Amino acid sequence: MNYATPPKKMLILNILDILRKYSDENHRLSAKDIGERLEREYSQKVDRKAIKRNLMNLIDFGYQLEFSESIRINKSGEEEIITSDWYLVRDFTDAELRLLIDSLLFSKHIPYNQCKELIEKLEGLSNTYFKAKVKHIRTMPEKLSENKALFYTIEILDDAIEKKKRVQFHYISDYGIDKKPLLHKNQDGKVTTYKVNPYQMAATNGRYYLICTHKYYPEAVSNYRIDRIVDIKLLDDEPITPVKEVPALKNGFDLPKHMAENIYMFGGESVWVKFRAKRYIIKDILDWFGYDARFTGEDDENIIVDVKVSEQAMLYWSLQYGEHIEVLSPESLRDRVGKAAKSIAEKY
Question: Which pTM was predicted?
Answer without folding.
Answer: 0.58
